[in-house]
């Protein structure tokens, strides 16, 4: 099935703390304080004022989110499963189908998130897990979700996550076999240079992996046909699944990016920031020297430095002057002589200043234009969006800043709509998978005339933004 030896499995199954929510002990409180101190170092490295109202509580919020997002290190699979094994007559060691014994039990669409061990960014997980009963034993169905969550709530990579789920369930349930198919979606966060050069940057990297134990170890076995046939209507088939991801294949976008020529342009990292991330890993119960984590602090800091307060030079004053020169707004506006123009689906990427977690989405801009008006180009609007996106932000402020900046450039009558998906909505216990947030800022006639505002909002295509899986 996988790469887990017996010793490693025992460590995973016999973790430290029982399942469920636990109160912070003395050691946990110490680790939380250590994470908060490390986050302060990172914020200072970004050039931020750690006493600023918006981020004053950020170190505590980040520590709380990481503690929640890695609670799997402090949970026991045994405690979850052993109290939920039930006898079921007719299920013995034989494997059969109609009229036989040991039929397949499959639970689909278990949504989780995990932190990528290569870059510390959260990624979304949709897990389909099943087993074939034996020994007259079945397990409570909710426990399959609980067990998958234990291993998702650790620093992970997709193939190991699938292997660990199968191995743990096989040891505790002792079935004829366990199978898991996992769909993972990792945000592909660009740096500022690459996003300006690549207007078609893809926001997500997706992978589909599988693992099996017992009768599922043979990937050609008939039992896999049963499993996959029950997933076909979800668009999953054998051809799409990577039955075993090569150990030298990297799925994390940060690894792919650093292998490119652009990596040579990255400036030297702040040693204090790198040390701070290593301290966070240690406080979470990980070994920063583990082979898979050796480069993680550096990769996280390189990504975080995209959001330095001075990371992008833009002469907004000159934009205002040029915009006003091309504008033709004197006195009252005659709406009969103007039409609504728009630039839709301008992509942006940003970083939540409350939790240091990424959010991204699209910006829609509307404005009133006449024949005499010469609006600024889409490329300049996109640059303004990126300028305000690549900062520690909140979506409401981002929307307002874009509107206030482009207003004099577009004649004063503007509306900005921002649609975004926030990883903090899934990675700190809320788990609102697939949710998105929309914010509006309207100036000029878009602010005072509800019919004009409604006309623009109705012009935005449906399903313009997808937050992940």
UniProtKB/TrEMBL annotation:
Enzymatic reactions: GTP + H2O = 7,8-dihydroneopterin 3'-triphosphate + formate + H(+)
GO cellular component: cytoplasm
UniProt KW keywords: GTP-binding, Hydrolase, Metal-binding, Nucleotide-binding, Tetrahydrobiopterin biosynthesis, Zinc
Pfam families for this protein: GTP_cyclohydroI
EC number: 3.5.4.16
Family: Belongs to the GTP cyclohydrolase I family.
Subunit structure: Homodimer.
Name the record gives this protein: GTP cyclohydrolase 1
């Amino acid at each position: 099935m996988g790469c887990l030896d017996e010793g490693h499995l025992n460590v995973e199954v016999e973790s430290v703390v029982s399942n469920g929510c636990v109160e912070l002990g003395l050691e946990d409180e110490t680790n939380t304080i250590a994470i908060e101190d490390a986050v302060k170092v990172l914020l200072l490295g970004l050039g931020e004022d750690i006493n600023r109202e918006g981020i004053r509580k950020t170190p505590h919020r980040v520590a709380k989110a990481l503690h929640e997002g890695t609670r799997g290190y402090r949970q026991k699979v045994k405690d979850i499963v052993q109290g939920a094994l039930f006898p079921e007559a007719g299920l013995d060691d034989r494997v059969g189908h109609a009229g036989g014994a040991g039929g397949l039990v499959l639970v689909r669409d278990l949504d989780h998130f995990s932190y990528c061990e290569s870059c510390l960014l959260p990624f979304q997980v949709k897990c389909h897990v099943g087993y074939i009963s034996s020994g007259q034993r079945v397990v409570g169905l909710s426990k399959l979700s609980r067990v998958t969550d234990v291993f998702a709530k650790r620093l992970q990579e997709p193939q190991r996550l699938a292997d660990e789920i199968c191995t743990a369930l096989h040891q505790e349930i002792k079935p004829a076999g366990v199978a898991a198919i996992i769909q993972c979606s990792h945000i592909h966060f660009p740096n500022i240079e690459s996003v300006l050069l690549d207007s078609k940057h893809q926001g997500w990297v997706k992978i589909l992996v599988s693992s099996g134990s017992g009768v599922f170890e043979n990937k050609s076995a008939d039992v896999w046909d049963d499993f996959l046939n029950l997933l076909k209507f979800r668009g999953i088939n054998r051809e799409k699944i990577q039955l075993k991801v090569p150990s030298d294949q990297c799925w994390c976008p940060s690894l792919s990016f650093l292998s490119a020529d652009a990596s040579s342009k990255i400036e030297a990292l702040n040693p204090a920031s790198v040390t701070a991330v290593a301290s966070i890993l240690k406080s979470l119960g990980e070994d920063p020297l583990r082979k898979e984590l050796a480069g993680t602090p550096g990769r996280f800091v390189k990504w975080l430095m995209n959001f330095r307060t001075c990371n992008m030079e833009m002469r907004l004053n000159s934009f205002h002057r040029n915009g006003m020169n091309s504008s033709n707004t004197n006195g009252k506006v005659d709406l009969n002589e103007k039409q609504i123009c728009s630039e839709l689906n301008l992509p942006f990427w940003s970083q939540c200043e409350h939790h240091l977690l990424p959010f991204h989405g699209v910006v829609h801009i509307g404005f009133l234009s006449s024949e005499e008006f010469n609006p600024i180009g889409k490329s300049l609007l996109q640059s303004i969006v990126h300028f305000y996106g690549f900062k520690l932000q909140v979506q409401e402020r981002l929307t307002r800043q874009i509107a206030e900046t482009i207003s004099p450039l577009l004649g004063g009558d503007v509306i900005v709509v921002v649609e975004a998906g926030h990883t903090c909505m899934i990675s700190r216990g809320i788990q609102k998978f697939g949710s998105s947030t929309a914010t509006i800022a309207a100036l000029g006639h878009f602010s005072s005339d509800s019919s004009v505002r409604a006309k623009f909002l109705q012009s935005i295509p449906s399903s313009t933004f997808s937050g992940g899986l």
